[in-house]
Amino acid sequence: MLNKDSSTHTRGESVYLDDVPLLQGTLFGAAFASSIAHGHITSLCLDEAGQMPGVVKIFTWKDIPGDNQIGGIVPDEPLLASHGVDFCGMPIAFVVAETDSAARAALKKIRVEIDPLPVITDPREAQARGALIVPPRQFVLGDTTTAWNECSHVFSGKADTNGQEHLYIETQGAYAIPQENEGLKIYSSTQSPRATQTASCRVTGLPMHQIEVEVTRLGGGFGGKEDQANAWAALCALAAFQLKKPIKYCLHRMEDMAMTGKRHPYSADFKIGLDAQYNILAYEVVFYQNAGAAADLSPAVLERTLFHCTNTYYIPNVKATGYSCRTHLPPNTAFRGFGGPQGMFVIESAIAWAAEQLGIDKTIIQKANLNKTGDLFPYGQKAVSEAQVCWNKTERLYDTASWQAAVQTFNRSNLLYKKGLAWMPICFGISFTNTMMNQARALVHVYADGSVSISTGAVEMGQGVNTKMVQVAAQVFSIRPQRIRVQSTSTHRIANTSPSAASATADLNGKATLMACTAILERLREVAADQFGATTGNIRLQDEVVCVNGERTDWNWHKLVSAAFGKRVNLSEHAHYATPEIFFDKTKEKGHPFAYHVYGTSVTVVTLDCLRGTYEFDAVKIVHDFGASMNPAIDRGQIEGGLVQGMGWMTMEEIVYDAQGRLRSNTLSNYKVPDIYSVPREILIHPLQTDTDNAAIFRSKAVGEPPLMYGIGAFFAIRDAIRAFNPAALVPFDAPLTPEKTLMALYGKNKKEGADKLKASAQVSL
Amino acid sequence: MIRFILNDTELSTDLPAGTTLLDFVRYNRRLTGTKIGCREGDCGACSVLIGELIEEQLRYRSYTSCLTPLGNVQGKHVVTIEGLNPATGLNPVQQAMSSCSATQCGFCTPGFVVSLAQFCVSGKEATVQNAIAAMDGNICRCTGYKSIERAAEEITGLLSAREEQDPLQFAVGNNILPAYFSLMKARLMALRERSKELRKPRSTQAFRVAGGTDLYVQRHDELDHDDIHFMFDDPALRIIRRQGNQCIMGPAVTATDLQESAVIREAFPHFSKQVKAISSTPIRNGATIAGNFVNASPIGDFSIFFLAADAQLLLSDGNHTRRLPLRKLYKGYKQLDLKAHEHIREISFTLPGKETCVNFEKVSKRTHLDIASVNSALFITMNGDLIAEAGLAAGGVAPVPLCLQQTADFLVGKHLEETLIGEAIAIAKEEISPVSDARGTAAYKTLLLGQLIKAHFISLFPRLDASRLLHLV
Q1: What is the pLDDT of residue B318?
Q2: C-alpha distances in angstroms, A190 versus A54, A221, A259, A488, A703?
Q3: Are the Cβ atoms of B104 and A641 closer than 8 angstroms?
Q4: I need a labelling partner for A593 at 20 to 30 A (CA). Which of A288, A552, B2, B63 fits?
């Protein structure tokens, strides 16, 4: 089934936040943000701005009736700065005016004086000063201390990844409309209606039933609208609550880029030990996560880094330590992969470094250490593994040996261009690692005319979750998808939602929808059983027709529903689903946090222009563990899109903050995401169809995040090509590998610096 | 007053002529299919088609409406996604996008549909490459583009039946465009008669706007008024002609005009390919050469190209004119040798002869639709093995678009050989003063300039030993 929105999308008729028709009297908001990353506010002068034409009111922290607090996991993030600022882009005031341009004109007239304080942008520096968001975390398996003695080879090094701008094409925004009796309705571009509702409640002091958050769809989210949609909604809610007027605020791109957090940059030290057969016996890693100025989701992101620190390899002795470091950058946040990619990059770097030092191909170590069913992850869960199946299938299906040979032949016969090849196996756990969040509800109505309405807590942001909800209902009821409508996501209809995140949205909400539809179906079958004098067990619906013992009757879906309604049968159901069997004990850092894992293997080949330091990707070929895909077209789109986003993170997407904590890559003209020319010429995806039972909806494994990590292969492919040109090149494990870093590595100008970066051997222990 | 046809409706507006077309269609006409992604022409979510009569033929090009002032659509046909929609269902472009799953969140989708529609009416050969090129200004963050490529293949297949038919008629005949397009040429002709003298009077000191592709990125909030001299639609300012061995161009000539000009194509056979690395289709449709010059960006691609060509400018303040070589225009970072109210009236340069080779190089973080880290152009005239003349320029290595005069002077009169290039690079490195910024460190830009100089010679003179050049330090 095609994405159910594809008609309105291609006709430009799908409704996003900025398309919601405005009510008369709507006022427009704009946030005034700090241009200093750290300091004390000594004065704030709003007089001139307040006199500007059209300005209605300028809100500061003093105008907040509830708490000046929007922090989710940790209450450390004021909505509006009061006495100090902690990052460039931190909102200080909120102008409300009669027009959008009047509000923005007034921003320029606000005067603030800030006594600057020292700015920290480097997580290691923050850690050294004890500036941590939460206490450090440590996952331990086996005993690395004794394991080092058994290793034939031990290597250590450093690996860094930069952040990544979400660059959803629709910027953040909210539209808050007062309702009678002090209520508020907020249209928000949020992945997490509950979090947006909670933040707005906290700021206004209203209970949750007074604020409805409604979402039709997002123009992209990728994690960036999980917690970071809250501030704009809370600002609009604050103003709407006080002024009793509808308030709208859609961020301009530069505001969005400057004021919102991104994927967390990480710096890490690793130490890896192998035996003579290249089995990895021990691995120690310390992660320094650049959390930014407030917690946001950083502790949860850090946790997932630790969960994925060994990627898809079985390593018997592991010690992984994570610091969430408080710096003066905008609070970094969720981004597809949620810390997992950062963890995987380090183990892949460690393996690459070991292979280079040993003078062997990286794949020898990778392949020798793939996990198998029954192996333990460092957090105590036993693997149900497809790792070796995926790898072996990739070898066979794509004849990788010949491919590798062709690369070598090319490199021998070409001077100006070199090819590089890299394998990237992945293993990604599905579930919110915070067990409590693995719950969802669905409200299904069958109307008297046979049409069906579904409401869930899922937010549609392009991932196709609403299409999958339609498929679930269509399958259970055996009716045409055209009879089914998925409603907008509203906190009035579905309470206490979990965010659409962690790749788990279709699973959680799909299971709840399945339960609701099944309950209604059971009641309908009873009606049919009564009618035909059969038992419910003999009643089946097939292609909208009631069948008794496999025989078609003259009752169709519509007639069945009408009859049920006439008999006063309940045609609605509100179902609740909670993922079974998962748990995690943070005091021991052990448990079974994931419902299941998704596996896959990719091979990436790049062609490097050794004269100019630029590159193009020939192909990425993938074997991916879909389970049993319920929508191959949508799932393929998730893989292609995730892969390319991951490749962007590893290649051209370079976040630049200066030493004062100001974002330099602050527009689309200086922050580049992949365009149509920068994607691989060929992307092949082979579905590994597995019959193994899993906890996914219809056994169709979650697909949102895992493919992003195939993108890591881009980094190692370029690295491979650089070394084909210059075997002595020292290429730091420092992503992204931009054309700049590539050219510098090709010509070895940074040999000394590169060596320092690679060999920096900080103490690998807590 | 601005009068034009928006989709199927002729309308007029008293809004300031400097208002962006994007704000007009979205917030004045509530045509919300045109999306706002960046307001700087870098995402394509707000793409529209603009049709106009050129030599009595109706021609459609794509533009980003965020950078298009209303003043530039006077008397034209503006087409938003709503204007492409059939009454019900999907047109073949939309159908291809839908059936290939080329839409996920959908926010960028109308822009892609508009760009593909432009490809269908452009008359460009129906190849997948051309279809993809039409979308070079559209960014999608969801799909990874492969599904969009598959849609482009489907559409290209559809167009292969077109053969010699008129593209517009074919598009209407195959429901790619709604039927009202078939009357548009006549409607625009009629409108032209009624649009004369509609424009509000402007002062003699009115601010000059050409394509708007840079001004509306930097200063759109200051241009929301009527005292603007719109140069874009003045045919006299859009001419490209040959006069002896000279090429004379008006200041409002766009990058696309250059690409499509027979004079330019003949003189620079690789021009079109090299221009692909400059910006995107909708931006090239608006961006003017003179605009690139006076914008004074140290990495302006056309500034670099025409510095190497030693282009000459004719300047005018309305009363007096004077001539100035382009290389003398730049006095410092964003500082020009222009007096009050002085503007470029004409650009001229010597067309390269048979002995002259031309190469343009550009490296940026992203190969397409990006600003260069370093760019460079070389015009070199050979007399046998001897270098007779050389023009060399580079961007991103100084506060201004830089003419590498000493390097060029050094080359002239020498035998072309590998070691000479090494020496030239050493001189070039003395001429530059790059700074570290978001586009790269000074060390990188210095190294890269040397590489691009090597690339000029490796590209133009295959007889040179590339391996020796590669390892020159």
Answers
A1: 87
A2: 29, 8, 16, 12, 20
A3: yes
A4: A288
A760–chain B Cβ distance below 8 A for any pair: no
Let me know the angle formed at the C-alpha of A721 by A715 and A727, rounded to the nearest 5 degrees: 115
Over residues A257-275, mean pLDDT: 98
Nearest chain A CA: its distance from B333 CA (Å): 19
B169, B292: one domain: no
pLDDT tens for each residue of B346-375: 999 999 999 999 999 999 999 999 999 999
CATH code for position B303: 3.30.465.10
CA distance A242 to A370: 59
Q: Residues B240-278: pLDDT tens digits? A: 999 999 999 999 999 999 999 999 999 999 998 888 899
CA gap B376, B424 in Å, rounded: 14
Same-domain pairing of B240 and B274: yes
Instruction: Judge if pTM exceeds 0.95.
Output: yes
Query: What CA–CA distance (Å, rounded) separates B387 from B365?
Result: 33
CB contact under 8 A, B105 and A636: no
Considering the domain architecture, whether residues B129 and B270 belong to the same structural domain is answered as: no
Q: What CATH number does residue B130 fall under?
A: 1.10.150.120
Q: Which range, of A198-212, A596-610, A679-693, B192-206, averages the lowest pLDDT?
A: B192-206
- In this prediction the ipTM stands at 0.97
Q: Could you give the number of structural domains in chain B?
A: 3
Spatial strand order in the sheet of B374-383 = B356-363, B374-383, B386-395, B402-403
Predicted confidence at residue B473, as pLDDT, reads 63
Distance of CA A661 to the CA centre of its chain: 24
Q: A718 vs chain B: nearest CA distance in angstroms?
A: 14
Please say if A705 is a catalytic residue. yes
* Residue A374 tokens, joined: 């029954």
Comparing A220-224, B2-6, B270-274, the range with the smallest average pLDDT is: B270-274
Give CA separation, B286 vs A618, B40, B50, B189, in Å: 33, 13, 11, 23
| Number of A–B residue contacts, CB under 8 Å | 244
Q: What angle do CA A241, A246, A250 make, to 5 degrees?
A: 105
Nearest CB to B370: which of A222, A672, A744? A672
- Residue type at B201? P
Is the Cβ pair B98, A7 closer than 8 Å? yes
Indicate if B134 and B276 belong to the same structural domain. Answer: no
We report the CATH number of the domain holding residue B225 as 3.10.20.30
- Cis peptide bond N-terminal to A736, omega within 30: yes
Q: Are residues B103 and B37 in the same domain?
A: no
- Does an H or E element contain A420, and which? strand A417-430
pLDDT tens, B385-399?
A: 999 999 999 999 999
Residues B309 and B457 placed together within one structural domain of the fold: yes
Q: CB distance A253–B40 less than 8 Å?
A: yes
pLDDT tens-digit readout, B410-420: 999 999 999 99
Interface subset of A 248-267, CB within 8 angstroms of B: 250, 252-253
Note whether B359 and B325 are same-domain residues: yes
Please report the domains of chain A, with CATH numbers, ordered by start residue.
26-118+166-259 (3.30.365.10), 266-432+589-759 (3.30.365.10), 439-578 (3.30.365.10)
Token pair, residue B415, equals 């035998």
Q: Which domain range does residue B138 map to?
A: 92-177
Q: Are residues B99 and B47 in the same domain?
A: no
Instruction: Please name every residue paired with A127 in a beta bridge, in sequence order, or none if there are none.
Output: none
